[in-house]
From TrEMBL:
It comes from Maledivibacter halophilus. One of its GO terms (cellular component) is cytosol. It is found in: Cytoplasm. Gene3D superfamilies: 3.30.2130.30, HUPs (3.40.50.620). Pathway: Cofactor biosynthesis; thiamine diphosphate biosynthesis. Residues 59-165 form the THUMP domain. The gene is thiI. The lineage of its organism: Bacteria, Bacillati, Bacillota, Clostridia, Peptostreptococcales. ATP binds at L182, L183, H207, Y208, R264, G286, Q295. This is Probable tRNA sulfurtransferase.
Length: 390
């Protein structure tokens, strides 16, 4: 009996004429990801994708596949020549496995795509359900709200499966252009980058540090975060920019309370330059309204005015608790909370302006050699490509 992994992709199937493009991107992404395990067959058939599980470790494959954007859910299915006897037997086997996991109620659902099969769907469900009830004590049918659905599909062959393991959904990675994420060492920006990547947008990252005022560990922390993100994105190109000279210049020439807002504008301006160079079509930040002084609407306006490119802020209306939940789910949380500081804490004013005015800030920038500072920072930028297995 063959064993396969059924891979469902919801939203992509709505894409009309673009559908083959999205499907093929997903297929390619899955093939590339499972290659680390072996020479595994992945193929497309009746609006779904399949992986031949053969003797491979199915948990390993599930772990990889459920991280791939575009995958809505997966199930392990048995495939065999369709006949009622065998269908009952395999369904019973699946039911027994579910009982071991504590399942109390079930329902059999049948799809009969092959109209030549002599037994009709409702009757298949009834017969299989009856067979399971006969053989397992204590298991009950619940047609409205079952703990588990045992699915029977009769096509060229019979397919039987039960457990559905959820994926993240979204769109296939790389199907939606490219964006540059301003990646700090905090909780928010990795989540912001992940959310945009989930929509199929390829991401690159840019990080600012104030070495040697900030430590090597702080830099490594960001590399670690990029590595975790790369598990969803195959690889991440990380640009690392030293902001220290810029902060020193601000410290020397401008009001202390404008340090944060001025550095944020430099970050954005530098990110935009690098983004254009790298053919990115948007910037992504982890800003969320009101979280800190630099995230009031006034501050966001002033920061935003430093660039022309669209800035995506996927967390803008989210509460910290919900952001934390996502960071736990995607595995960045533990790294994000490590206590190494990025550049924002150097020269930090006691009282940052919370309602900056753009004219004022532009006046302050006139005291600085903005152009020279930006090009120096970019000329000294370091670039590394981070991959999951590094
Ligand atoms: P995070 O948790 O992402 O660090 P935050 O709550 O600390 O966010 P801010 O310090 O105001 O908020 O930063 C807002 C956004 O600016 C960050 O989400 C990130 O996108 C960007 N940013 C801040 N500091 C850096 C940095 N050192 N390098 C790159 N981007 C940064
Ligand atoms: Mg931060």
């Amino acid at each position: 009996m063959e064993k396969v992994l059924i891979i469902r992709y919801g939203e992509i199937s709505l894409k009309g004429l673009n559908r083959p493009y999205f499907e093929n991107t997903l297929l390619k992404n899955i093939r590339r990801s499972v290659r680390q395990i072996g020479d595994i067959r992945v193929y497309k058939s009746h609006g779904r994708l399949y992986i031949d599980l053969e003797d491979y470790d199915e948990e390993d494959i599930i772990e990889i596949v459920t991280k791939i954007f575009g995958v809505v859910s997966v199930s392990i299915a048995y495939i065999f020549e369709a006949n009622m006897e065998k269908i009952c037997e395999v369904a019973l086997k699946q039911a027994l496995e579910c009982v071991e996991e504590g399942i109390k109620t079930f329902k059999v659902e049948t799809k009969r795509a092959n109209k030549n099969f002599p037994v009709k769907s409702p009757e298949i469900s009834r017969t299989v359900g009856g067979y399971i009830l006969e053989h397992i004590d204590g298991l009950k049918v619940d047609v409205h709200n079952p703990d588990i659905r045992i699915n029977v599909e009769v096509r060229d062959k019979a397919y039987v499966y039960s457990r559905k393991i959820p994926g993240f959904g979204g769109m296939p990675y790389g199907s939606g252009g490219k964006a540059m994420v301003l990646l700090s060492g905090g909780i928010d920006s990795p989540v912001a980058g992940w959310l945009v990547a989930k929509r199929g947008v390829e991401i690159e990252a840019i990080h600012y540090h104030s070495y040697p005022f900030t430590s090597d560990r702080a830099k490594e922390k960001v590399i670690d975060l990029a590595r975790i993100l790369s598990k969803y994105c195959t690889k991440i190109r990380l640009h690392s920019v030293n902001l220290l000279n810029i902060q020193k210049a601000i410290n020397e020439k401008c009001h202390a309370e404008e340090m944060t807002i001025l550095s944020r504008r430099f970050m954005m301006a530098i990110a935009e330059r690098v983004a254009v160079e790298r053919k990115c079509k948007a910037l992504v930040t982890g800003e969320s309204i009101g979280q800190v002084a630099s995230q009031t609407l006034e501050s966001i306006n002033v920061t935003n005015a430093a660039v022309n490119m669209p800035v995506f802020r996927p967390l803008i209306a989210m509460d910290k608790m919900d952001i934390v939940k996502i960071s736990e789910k995607i595995d960045t949380y533990e790294t994000s909370i490590l206590p190494f500081e990025d550049c924002c804490t150097v020269f930090l004013p006691d009282r940052p302006v919370t309602k900056p005015r753009l004219e004022r800030i532009l006046k302050s920038e006139e005291l600085l050699d903005v152009e020279g500072l930006i090009s120096d920072a970019i000329n000294n930028m370091e670039v590394i490509t981070v991959k999951p297995e590094d």
